[in-house]
Task: structure prediction
Amino acid sequence: MALRLGDAAPNFRAQTSDGEIDFHEYLGTGWGILFSHPADYTPVCTTELGKTALLAEEFAKRNTKVLAVSVDPLDKHEGWIKDINETQNTTVNFPLIADPDRQVATLYDMIHPNASATATVRSLFIIGPDKNIKLIITYPASTGRNFVEVLRVLDSLQLTANYSVATPADWKAGEDVIVVPAVSTEDAIKKFPKGVKVVKPYLRYTPQPNV
Ligand code: BEZ
Result:
């Protein structure tokens, strides 16, 4: 059955470009991103993995480990990583999982038969420190992902995990956030000393509490 938000992220052992890993052990106590690629030596995936490597500091700031998965075998990954480093001016610094028997692709429902019987679509999962799934996004193979959006969602997830707030449309880190409906305006005024702006009784803004 397909995974849903809040489900436990299935664990697995796999060969990767950084050696054999146990997924949960690899994530440790931080956040994780697992994202799939239709195949090695494909152009869109090459740019996506390059972009992810270039954003290494941003993921590290957010205490987030990234793992990519492609159904090709390890020896193929090794040659492809050299190409990614060369063409994207970077160094791939995260594990690329080899999944020739489609263990991970199957566990995470990354093969959508109406798109392709054998290749994965572009699935991306964000996993919280509790090892539960916090975000699932699925793109077709022909559309490269927006990694600025991935970082933005991570910021929102990490903020809303710790404060009784939600983030409005197009929110970016540093902008005002929304007080969740479960908190009364009276309590919000006590909880958020930076102030609460009441636009409607159900639409209340406060400055981002953790900056
Ligand atoms: C790719 O680069 O991964 C790709 C591009 C077009 C269609 C399918 C995959």
Q: What stands out?
A: Residues 38, 42-45, 141-142 surround benzoic acid (CB under 6 Å). The mean pLDDT is 97. The radius of gyration is 19 Å.
